[in-house]
Amino acid sequence: MHIGFNYREGIVISDVHVHDQQQQRDRTLFNRISIVEMILPYGYPDPPHQRKHAFDVGEYGSGLMTNSLKLGCDCKGAIHYLDAVMTTSKGEPAMIKNAICIHEEDNGLLYKHTDFRDGSVISARDRKLIISQIITAANYEYAFYHTFTLDGTYKLEIKLTGMLSLYCMHPSESAAPYGTEVAPRLNAHNHQHIFSLRTPFGNGFYCKKTPLRTAQDGAAVYRHETSWAWDIINSTSINASTKKPVGYKIINPNCPPLLAQPGSMVYKRAAFAHKSLWVVPYKDYEVFPAGDYICQSTGEENHRHNQTIVDWVARNESIENTDVVCYIQFGLTHFPRTEDFPIMPAEPPMGPAVVGEHRPDVEKCFLCQQGRKKLCAAVKDGAVPLSGREIELMWLKWAWIG
């Protein structure tokens, strides 16, 4: 894999492969992974708060807000740091020391089975490779953790901490129903955090055995009542056992709808948050779903200088048997608590993840078999086994399928 960094997206992970021991070849998981947008709309209707919303990626830049990480608190263990070189407003170079942290952690039991006939045991421990970055966006801190584990899954976790955005109240005012009085006469407004993860895949796409053939078909909203999932498949590659196309499964149950009123400025500017999933044909110049130029954007559709994902989808191009890009929205609606004041505890991780047919954990692990440790296979040429697990607060799971 390649780990990159830029002023807008922060960490960009590209050219991600996993080695298939059975077929003795590398499988491509992702061409490029990054958080391309996030919207933070506040839910207080009175002026001037009704206009309060921030695009922390597009307006401010995750890279520009990145912290210099410290050993022992931000990161712990055997760590390799990467510095980030940025430019100042004068065009001069500026370095963010230790902008990216790379380390491994034990991830508990990977699998275990005891044969009741002869008592033989097979078990393995899991490990996860974590590539992380922490940003400070005004009062909020966001900690991004891209994790790869031995079962062949990728997971993005995001932890939220920092401080609430507070307002003083008059003794006659009440915080309810649009906020919480977290301390005497201090009002913390209700708000949302919605992120967009961009993942280009190099294969065709269909959902729940119902083919999604065009970009408009691929604009989908998650249905909790039926536990919707989406499959990204390669119809030209058939699994030898199942006789079905190989691919990945996207599971994203934690995708709250954008609560801004339709027609409002927030609703129009954050059109990417209208759907849980967008799928469009890959184009080099189409990266940011809210548009290239976020500052002072109006949300006008088909703006010739600032086209958004709504405009890309309106072309209704085919997404069959071609390189596609998925935009997966996930987030949470935050109703502040008194426990969040004066500083918020880091929330349980939220984010997306992926799973599938191939099981590199069976091939690349230490097996504890009948008390003997046996190295099953080495990681080829330093390649990192990919992985991902459940994301507790909000998660999206990619899996090998077929």
TrEMBL record:
<feature type="active site" description="Schiff-base intermediate with substrate; via topaquinone">
    <location>
        <position position="140"/>
    </location>
</feature>
<keyword id="KW-0560">Oxidoreductase</keyword>
<feature type="domain" description="Copper amine oxidase catalytic">
    <location>
        <begin position="1"/>
        <end position="198"/>
    </location>
</feature>
<comment type="subunit">
    <text>Homodimer.</text>
</comment>
<dbReference type="InterPro" id="IPR036460">
    <property type="entry name" value="Cu_amine_oxidase_C_sf"/>
</dbReference>
<feature type="modified residue" description="2',4',5'-topaquinone">
    <location>
        <position position="140"/>
    </location>
</feature>
<dbReference type="GO" id="GO:0048038">
    <property type="term" value="F:quinone binding"/>
</dbReference>
<keyword id="KW-0479">Metal-binding</keyword>
<dbReference type="GO" id="GO:0009308">
    <property type="term" value="P:amine metabolic process"/>
</dbReference>
<keyword id="KW-0801">TPQ</keyword>
<dbReference type="Pfam" id="PF01179">
    <property type="entry name" value="Cu_amine_oxid"/>
</dbReference>
<comment type="similarity">
    <text>Belongs to the copper/topaquinone oxidase family.</text>
</comment>
<keyword id="KW-0186">Copper</keyword>
<dbReference type="GO" id="GO:0008131">
    <property type="term" value="F:primary methylamine oxidase activity"/>
</dbReference>
<dbReference type="InterPro" id="IPR015798">
    <property type="entry name" value="Cu_amine_oxidase_C"/>
</dbReference>
<feature type="active site" description="Proton acceptor">
    <location>
        <position position="56"/>
    </location>
</feature>
<protein>
    <recommendedName>
        <fullName>Amine oxidase</fullName>
        <ecNumber>1.4.3.-</ecNumber>
    </recommendedName>
</protein>
<dbReference type="InterPro" id="IPR049948">
    <property type="entry name" value="Cu_Am_ox_TPQ-bd"/>
</dbReference>
<dbReference type="GO" id="GO:0005507">
    <property type="term" value="F:copper ion binding"/>
</dbReference>
<feature type="domain" description="Copper amine oxidase catalytic">
    <location>
        <begin position="199"/>
        <end position="347"/>
    </location>
</feature>
<dbReference type="InterPro" id="IPR000269">
    <property type="entry name" value="Cu_amine_oxidase"/>
</dbReference>
